[in-house]
Amino acid sequence: MISDQVEAPATETAEEEEDEYNAKGTWIASGAHFAHDLYPSYIGVLIPYVQSQLGISLALASLMVPAQQMPSILQPFIGYFADRTSRRLFVVLTPGIAALSLSMIGLAPHLSVVIILLLISGLASAAFHAPAVAMVGEFGGKKMGRAMAIFMAGGELARTMGPLVITAAIALFTFRGSFVVLVFGVAASIILYFTLDTSKGDARAKRGNQAALKPLLKARIRPLTGLFGYSIVKAVATVPFHFFLVALLVSKGYSEWYAGFALSLLFGAGVIGGFIGGMVSDRIGRKITLTIVTLLTAPLFYLYLWLEDGSWWVLSVLMVAGLVSMSVRPVNLAQTQELFPEARGPMAGMMLAVGFVTMSLASIGFGTMADSIGIETAFWIIASMSFLALPFIALLPKQGEALPQPPKE
Asked: Counting Cβ atoms within 10 Å, is residue 389 exposed (0-12), middle (13-18) or buried (19+)?
């Protein structure tokens, strides 16, 4: 009896700490996300420069994309390892590693060196994202949606600004001299070393909060199926707008400037949408938020496709569609952390790895479809896919519903 009375307050204190929202930690993590993702966002700009400098075909130069993304499949394992060591080390070091590897591409004498540098940056990306998402899961507490929205905004802002940064660096210092941009990532790692505090999360890890992953997945197979099924279907329906929108608009005879600006507006709207989606889901619940977004996504994209005539005002409809469709990204990540608080790292890594594989396969599939039936027709067909995500929402738990537990050994 005495033992129970002594231990109870400590347990309550630990639970209160887990529910507490760490605003400072969340914003620092978002800054780290920006510092890291700034460098992978250079690749689209670098491809034609690498092609020209090394005298290779576009087909060979396009290998740069899978080389950088392929290591992402390691994220579940990295997340598992980070949960049992320290997430801080991964998050602190990786912006500097990404900066050093991607900034040196202009100095590479051969394509093989370029591929090696991109593989290193891909490993840095895998080593950053799973531990960082798990760390933000710790920081979020009861405001998980807000925390994930702020964290994701850092990455989206980096993808918006990155191409401008590397373009300016090449214009000022030439392609070979563009390595100067490495200063941002290296400086970020140094700043993170002194400012990022994960002591509470590391202490919880040492108390043995992690559970064996296999029985945990088995016990929660229903919400796991809902979570991953929704993410996969939603990605298939929306990824083509991220990668092929420019090709669609150019094929319709509109200028490359108009097409590029349309894509920038789409991603810019996604930053705002992520903020709104994450915060709204904290108030009304993840499940309701996902349902509303899913019901609105296809109609909004259809409205845009129907109205698109090269007029600038039409892009306002595209912005609304992007705002709504991309608002679920922080919601999905928040739900992953809430459904599996005992295994934040590996589950974050698994979600991100599934996203990578889905994006790759969806892009290949859509490209093949567009070649067969025409790109505009393909867009009209693919947008309806988002409705197929609705049944998976039904598998997700309601707000506040107790999670199934694995049987005790």
From this structure: buried
**What is d(CA 149, CA 32) in angstroms, rounded to the nearest whole number?**
14
Confidence at residue 9, expressed as pLDDT on a 0 to 100 scale = 46
Where exactly are the structural domains of the chain?
11-206, 214-393
Tokens of 49: 């420069």
Contacts of 105 (CB under 8 A, 6+ apart): 46, 50, 114, 117, 118
Helices (H), 326-373: 328-339, 344-373
- Nearest by Cα to 302 from 404, 227, 202, 382: 382
Average pLDDT (62-88) is 79
Indicate left, alpha or beta for 57 from its phi (over 0: left) and psi (-120 to 50: alpha).
beta
Query: What pLDDT is attached to residue 7?
Result: 42
Please give the residue that has the higher pLDDT: either 365 or 295: 295
User: In the prediction, which pLDDT does 209 show?
Assistant: 53
One fold for both 11-206 and 214-393? yes
Task: Output the pTM of the full model.
Answer: 0.74
Name all contacts of 115-122 with Cβ < 8 Å and 24+ positions apart: 115/63, 115/64, 115/67, 118/43, 118/64, 118/67, 118/68, 119/67, 119/68, 119/70, 119/71, 121/39, 121/40, 121/68, 121/97, 122/67, 122/68, 122/69, 122/70, 122/71, 122/72
Q: Which CATH architecture has domain 214-393?
A: Up-down Bundle (1.20)
Q: From CA 123, how far away is CA 113, in angstroms rounded?
A: 15
Q: Is the pLDDT of residue 384 over 70?
A: yes
Q: How far apart are CA 214 and CA 203, in angstroms?
A: 24
Domain 11-206 sits in which CATH superfamily?
Answer: MFS general substrate transporter like domains (1.20.1250.20)
Can you tell me the distance from the alpha carbon of 16 to that of 339, in angstroms, rounded to the nearest whole number? 18
Are the beta carbons of 226 and 396 closer than 8 angstroms?
Answer: yes
Per residue in 219-278, pLDDT (tens digit) is 888 988 998 999 899 988 988 887 778 778 888 888 867 877 787 788 788 888 888 988
Tell me, what's the pLDDT at 6?
39
